[in-house]
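Internal ticket - ligand job 437, pyridoxal-5'-phosphate:
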Amino acid sequence: MPPMPSPMTNWTQAPAFHDEAARLDAADPLASFRARFHMPQHEGRDALYFTGNSLGLQPVAAAEFIEGELEDWRKFGVEGHFHGRRPWVDYHSFATEDLAALVGAKPIEVVAMNALTVNLHLLLVSFYRPEGRRTKLLIEQGAFPSDRYAALSQLRLHGLDPEEHLIEIAPRKGEHTLRTEDIEARIAEEGDRLACVMLCGVQYYTGQWMPMERITRAAHAVGATCGFDMAHAVGNVPVQLHDWNVDFACWCGYKYLNGGPGCTAGVFVHERHAQRPDLPRLEGWWGHSASRRFLMEPDFDLMPGAEGWQTSNAPVLNMAALLASLKEFRAAGMDRLRDKSVAMTDFLERGLLSVGEAAGGALEILTPSNPEARGCQLSVVAHGHGKALFDHLTQHGVIVDWREPSVIRMAPVPMYNRFADVADFLVVLEQGLRQAK
Ligand SMILES: *Cc1c(COP(=O)(O)O)cnc(C)c1O
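stdout (structure tokens):
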């Protein structure tokens, strides 16, 4: 296999970006965090990993966190529930403060539990309550399939025909992303027929960061509830779920949160719903008063806040890696991560535009150019290029996500990517665009 093209090869556009990358990396206050994660290898060197939007990298500390729980299990058996270093009976609570900080919430508003789609269902059971004239559920067209499946099955659960009661809002013809005024207009138009708005925080395919606060306000103005699937938003963009008055939200732990494959997910439920035994929900013993749980009483005694939506005890081994990652988020700080993210995605965008132009306008970026309307991910169409380009990237150690016919999704993740990764990628990309011509 050929070695990585060196920055010295005479490609016309990409090398200039190496000088800038070197300056930006030298000034990066978060540079040391790369060493706290395991970077996948390609032919004896670090791969160019841009798929942290799909599966975040393993924190070096994850092994120690997991081994700690294995040790407590060996030493204590069942007693680990009460005598471990992080007693398992309250294990979810060790993630609470950090998750709350990441999503702009109060601790009572968040809990780590289950997996994402499961949580989406649990929340829709409580917050999508069609009644009388108010029956409709609004999602976006092209939503992540699991979310759409969840929405459709929730409608059927209520005996409603999705054809009639599901709204899928789409971008204007010829556009890739939703306009805020169009979302607001559609919500207003549906008015008192709308029961719930359930959109993504950041769109997984286009990378668009939704105007969450304005959407929430519009939904509440017509008396609907409003929630977000934050799978691609949490740990990526700064959000203020409490202040924005969002009713509910959920996310997974394995994308930007780096909790590992199948990691425990999380939910947010606004404080104003913290004491709502009247809200129907699917109940389990972990949503029952913690102090009375082991009295094994037959009647359910609801815990206040998001914890009241828990059904089962926490998957400890799986959550241990999440705790290791959350420690890194605490140390890095979402403010600094966001600053670096904006700069690095801007750097990638300029590089793509420059390389794309040199290749005859081959690259079209679907993601909004306004930093306030995106996180770190850029979604790019490589016009006139197919799988050969993707194979070229893969052979040269670039890990990006490819969707047929020719959409590349790439996320320079501020926690562990360097500006130099982006510059190296641009060289490989430019070479691929020229070869595949
Ligand atoms: C990643 C992702 C999922 C995955 O769902 P799981 O329940 O974690 O398997 C669902 N929805 C969205 C929007 C996603 O980005």
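Auto-summary: The chain has 13 helices and 17 strands. The pocket of pyridoxal-5'-phosphate is lined by residues 115-117, 144, 146-147, 200, 204, 229, 231-232, 252 (CB under 6 Å).
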